[in-house]
């Protein structure tokens, strides 16, 4: 599989978005472990998670613990990078933002314990907090990095102005935003161009439409027509196109079945023709990198 750099870490160009394994409607833990193992077997070496990938505040860390279990059962293989996030909370199942330094410090300690590690590979601010300057949130994360608890820092759900403020106080290696042919805000607002200018990896979450939205990909005429020519699914066409747009794009599709993880990884081996890419560009003119 193709690779990309996250600081000094080398990871696969397609990663596993582990969120579906821990939110409402999740599979049982045994199946979830099989999903993670399938992703590893298919060549994925990046697993994306968050402390709040869970049902509610009583379930915090579920996804991180699940990943730790899956990796333990494989003997904690070398080269697998786990990226987690902090800065949100799940009171009674709601989604709220808390980017205070105190919260981030406490969240880091919980994530270290849940993951069973001494240092988190990639620690991402889950979302900017309107009540806290992003420089303060990122500054607290930079302190964790200096303390040896975090290796690299990333940001999620941000735009260029957030990146400017964050990069003034710390080294940022990645951005994680919702990005797909149907979710083009990161193209429209200049975030993808910013990443290209500064050499930041773009971790594209929900790259085939996301939870509840992937039917758009399954039903898309262009994706299906190209998939039929190559003998692959429309999802693989979508992922392969995103990969072809920029060497900095790293899709992290979610999966709740082992077969889905295996299929997503297979997109890395699909080479689209110039005609395919031109057809996709006509169908989705807002997608550019």
Using the alpha-carbon principal axes, give the shape. globular
CATH names the topology as TIM Barrel
Spatial order of the strands forming the largest sheet: 3-4-5-8-9-10-11-12
Report the end-to-end length measured between terminal Cα atoms. 21 Å
Mean pLDDT: 97
Sheet having the most strands? 8 strands, parallel
Number of strands: 12
- The CATH top-level class label: Alpha Beta
* Structural classification: alpha/beta
For the record, the count of structural domains works out to 1
Would you mind describing this structure in some detail?
- This protein is of the alpha/beta class and 289 residues long.
- It has a single domain, classed as Alpha-Beta Barrel (TIM Barrel).
- Helices cover 41% and strands 18% of the residues.
- It contains 12 helices and 12 strands.
- It has helices spanning 29-41, 62-73, 101-115, 134-146, 160-167, 185-188, 191-198, 215-218, 221-230, 234-245, 258-266, 274-283; strands at residues 3-6, 9-12, 16-17, 46-48, 81-86, 88-89, 96-97, 120-125, 150-156, 172-178, 201-205, 249-252.
- It has an 8-stranded parallel sheet.
- Strand 4 (46-48), helix 2 and strand 5 (81-86) form a beta-alpha-beta unit.
- Helix 1 (29-41) packs parallel to helix 11 (258-266).
- The longest helix has 15 residues, at 101-115.
- It is globular and about 55 Å long.
- The two termini are 21 Å apart.
- 50% of the residues are buried.
